[in-house]
């Protein structure tokens, strides 16, 4: 799969887009040094960390709608980091894909 093929996928499925973004980076080396982490938070919510490599740093962007509907994200040290509410995981992935230019 080539990186350009990501744009041809169903844009309504952020998980499928993320999977293809990941696969497009796997070259025998990238996946041994970098990767994607998705884990649950106890407040409740999700935490995502995705290695990007060289990228313009971005300070925290915060969207607070309700106690369970929120998203915080940034790019630091070549890494996308996000925390979000329990039903905002797809939104966080979409933000990542936009930041990564996919």
Quick description:
The protein is α+β, with helices and mostly antiparallel strands and 102 residues long. The chain has one domain. Helix content is 26%, strand content 35%.
How would you describe the overall organization of this protein?
With 102 residues, the chain is α+β, with helices and mostly antiparallel strands. It has one domain. It contains three helices and five strands; from the N terminus they run H-H-E-E-E-E-E-H. A five-stranded antiparallel sheet has the order 1-2-5-4-3, with helices on one face. Helix 1 crosses helix 3 (89-99). The longest helix has 12 residues, at 14-25. The protein is globular.
Question: Which characteristics define this entry?
Answer:
5-stranded antiparallel sheet; 102 residues; alpha+beta; 26% helix
User: Low-confidence segments, ≥5 residues, pLDDT <50?
Assistant: none
Strand content: 35-45%
Shape: globular
Order of helices and strands: HHEEEEEH
Q: Report how far apart the termini are.
A: 14 Å
Mean pLDDT: 87
Largest beta sheet, briefly? 5 strands, antiparallel
Give the helix/strand layout.
Elements: H1 14-25, H2 30-33, E1 36-41, E2 45-51, E3 58-66, E4 69-76, E5 79-84, H3 89-99
Antiparallel strand pairs: 1-2, 2-5, 3-4, 4-5
Helix pairs in contact: 1-3
